[in-house]
Amino acid sequence: MPSRRQNRAGARKGIVSAELEAALLKESRALGGLVEAVDRIKAVNDFFAQLDLELEQFADVRLEAVRELRAQGWSYDRIAAATSLSKARVAQLVKETGRGA
Question: Do the Cβ atoms of 81 and 87 come closer than 8 Å?
């Protein structure tokens, strides 16, 4: 099995719980164990699609936090500096919160 990519932007060791990491590794091994290459590709595509849906929960947590900071008067620059997001990404998130002011 290929080695894990460690250089993903923003990735920090220990952020994902040990339980989630173990579950993801188990799922990866199960998908990797499929005999036919086409079946592996289709299964991983399906997994990614489902994972995208599940990740929306986390995006909502971040959007709410951005909404809170803006309500407290934080500027885009201050949010960007404090969170390591780019100012453009902060602006995009603020727009998503529906409170672009």
Answer: no
pTM of the model: 0.64
- 86 by DSSP, 3-state: which? coil
Give 26-79 pLDDT, tens digit per residue: 999 999 999 999 999 999 999 999 999 999 888 899 999 999 999 999 999 999
- Nearest-angstrom CA–CA distance, 101 and 86: 18
DSSP 18-31: HHHHHHHHHHHHHH
Using pLDDT thresholds of 50, 70 and 90, give the confidence band for residue 16. Answer: confident
Report the phi/psi class of residue 26: left, alpha or beta, with left for phi > 0 and alpha for psi in -120 to 50: alpha
Q: How many angstroms separate the CA atoms of 95 and 87, rounded?
A: 12
Closest CA to 66 of 50, 80, 46, 49: 80
